[in-house]
């Protein structure tokens, strides 16, 4: 069997040791004689899995005790509505930073529930940079400030988390959660769809400060209320059990590797290899402002030449998959999440060098 280097933006690669462990345990978890997929979510074995998953993510991200970890469904996209349904309830005003396609979707959903103001945007330059955000721009009465820490499509990321003072900071961290060390206490709420850095699609992780739970109106549907998940330990109804199990294996893998400090070191090294080559290359270019570059999603273009289709086709033939850029940006994009080994990045650069020499 030949595994390829998959540069997909999501769902994306999973660490090979995680897949192998899941394969080994697939038919019978422990000595249960059942697959995790067949276990009752109320069974002792699954209780152990979800409890360990929570303990591991708490340990790896150093999540303070006054935060809850919720395992939900609906993807980051459902959080675009859940966040305002639960938090946009006091002044009904929220401040958003618009840094790309996902921010825009979050903004348009929040507008259905209250008064949304965009306090900073990089739309003027096609989202190729991260705008400055300082505390003076923030409405002190806002229920929250929302940012997208890593812009999956545009390839930008906040290098510094804005200080929002007493106004809770909400972050869509779908494409860079667990990729580097962050100070969770700077945030009121963090959410992430699992399919980039956590595990298989179907699971959504929410990390929420306790005082922000329980503010939703009485008419808020149970399944859209954080309190429901918090009160039940994410077991109000059947959770995505297999995805939670896989996420647990991924958290274990990160922990065994040396935690987020080591994960970040590896991720920075991988990104550096690719950016250094793009900088030195006469064929390829980065469309993203240097200070705003993501270490997870790296778009690159071939200016003034019509070579994208050829590049993508030949790369695929060499075992380098899913390098096509998002349709809104064009060109190419290499998503190099946690599970992408450094060898994959080195092979990509070697392929790019060869392609450049031929053109
Ligand atoms: C992928 C992605 C989303 C959408 O996630 P779903 O789980 O498909 O809803 C939202 N925000 C960001 C930053 C993403 O990368």
UniProtKB/TrEMBL annotation:
Keywords: Amino-acid biosynthesis, Aminotransferase, Cytoplasm, Pyridoxal phosphate, Serine biosynthesis, Transferase. Pathway: Amino-acid biosynthesis; L-serine biosynthesis; L-serine from 3-phospho-D-glycerate: step 2/3. Its cofactor is pyridoxal 5'-phosphate. L-glutamate binds at residue 42. The modification N6-(pyridoxal phosphate)lysine is found at residue 196. Its main location: cytoplasm. Residues 4-348 form the Aminotransferase class V domain. One of its GO terms (molecular function) is O-phospho-L-serine:2-oxoglutarate aminotransferase activity. Pyridoxal 5'-phosphate binds at residues 76-77, 102, 152, 172, 195, 237-238. Binds 1 pyridoxal phosphate per subunit. It catalyses: 4-(phosphooxy)-L-threonine + 2-oxoglutarate = (R)-3-hydroxy-2-oxo-4-phosphooxybutanoate + L-glutamate; O-phospho-L-serine + 2-oxoglutarate = 3-phosphooxypyruvate + L-glutamate. The keyword Oxidoreductase does not apply. Its EC number is 2.6.1.52. It holds the Pfam family Aminotran_5. Gene3D superfamilies: Aspartate Aminotransferase, domain 1, Type I PLP-dependent aspartate aminotransferase-like (Major domain). Catalyzes the reversible conversion of 3-phosphohydroxypyruvate to phosphoserine and of 3-hydroxy-2-oxo-4-phosphonooxybutanoate to phosphohydroxythreonine. Homodimer. Belongs to the class-V pyridoxal-phosphate-dependent aminotransferase family. SerC subfamily. This is Phosphoserine aminotransferase. The gene is serC.
């Amino acid at each position: 069997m030949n595994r390829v280097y998959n540069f997909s933006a999501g769902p994306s690669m999973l660490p090979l040791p995680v897949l192998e462990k899941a394969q080994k345990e697939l038919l019978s978890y422990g000595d249960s004689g059942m697959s995790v997929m067949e276990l009752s979510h109320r069974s002792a074995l699954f209780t152990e899995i979800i409890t360990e998953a929570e303990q591991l993510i708490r340990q790896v991200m150093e999540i303070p005790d006054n935060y809850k970890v919720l395992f939900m469904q609906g993807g980051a996209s459902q959080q675009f509505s859940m966040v305002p349904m639960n938090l946009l309830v006091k002044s009904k005003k929220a401040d958003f930073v618009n840094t790309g396609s996902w921010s825009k979707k979050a903004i348009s959903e929040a507008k259905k529930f209250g008064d949304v103001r965009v306090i900073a945007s990089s739309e003027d330059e096609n989202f190729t940079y991260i705008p400055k955000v300082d505390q003076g721009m923030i409405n002190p009465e806002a229920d929250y400030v929302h940012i997208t820490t890593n812009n999956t499509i545009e390839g930008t990321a906040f290098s510094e988390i804005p200080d929002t003072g007493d106004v809770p900071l909400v972050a869509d961290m779908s494409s860079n959660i667990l990729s580097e060390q962050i100070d969770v206490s700077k945030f009121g709420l963090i959410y992430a769809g699992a399919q980039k850095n956590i595990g298989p699609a179907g699971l959504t992780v929410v990390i929420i400060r306790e005082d922000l739970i329980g503010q939703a109106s009485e008419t808020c549907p149970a399944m859209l209320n954080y309190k429901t998940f918090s009160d039940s330990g994410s077991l109000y109804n059947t959770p995505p059990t297999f995805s939670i199990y896989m996420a647990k294996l991924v958290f274990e893998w990160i922990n065994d590797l040396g935690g987020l400090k080591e994960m970040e070191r590896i991720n920075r090294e991988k990104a550096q290899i690719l950016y250094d080559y793009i900088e030195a290359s006469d064929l390829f270019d980065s469309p993203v402002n240097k200070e705003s570059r993501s270490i997870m999603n790296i778009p690159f273009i071939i200016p003034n030449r019509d070579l994208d289709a050829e590049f993508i086709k030949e790369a695929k033939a060499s075992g380098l998959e899913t390098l096509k850029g998002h349709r809104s940006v064009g060109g190419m994009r290499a998503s190099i999440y946690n599970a992408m080994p450094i060898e994959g990045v080195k092979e990509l650069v070697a392929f790019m060098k060869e392609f450049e020499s031929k053109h």
